[in-house]
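subagent[fold] <- orchestrator: predict structure for attached chain, return tokens only, no commentary.
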Amino acid sequence: MSISRAITSKLQSNFLPSFLDVVNESYMHNVPKGSETHFKVLIVSEKFVGKPLIKRHREVNTVLAEELQSGVHALSIVAKTPSQWESDPSVVKSPPCLGGSKL
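subagent[fold] -> orchestrator:
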């Protein structure tokens, strides 16, 4: 199973999101073509209601601990409640890669 599919599957089963978008942003970075190392996750779930943003991120990171320890280099997380998503469905665009180890 691809890393992208594993991330999607784990987030679906653990958070029962009303909206989930897992984007492989590896193509934006200095990695081999077809890599699965950089991801952006947009997840909207009732399970985030009443929880601060840092707790939401920690919960997502905990669920994806295996992926983060075995190849995923970067994970951008946007974790919203349904009411937050309804009032503001915007997501900030990821910045361009600055070259990583080339600096």
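orchestrator: received. Logging for downstream: Strands lie at 19-24, 38-44, 74-80. Residues 48 and 81 are 6 Å apart (CA to CA).
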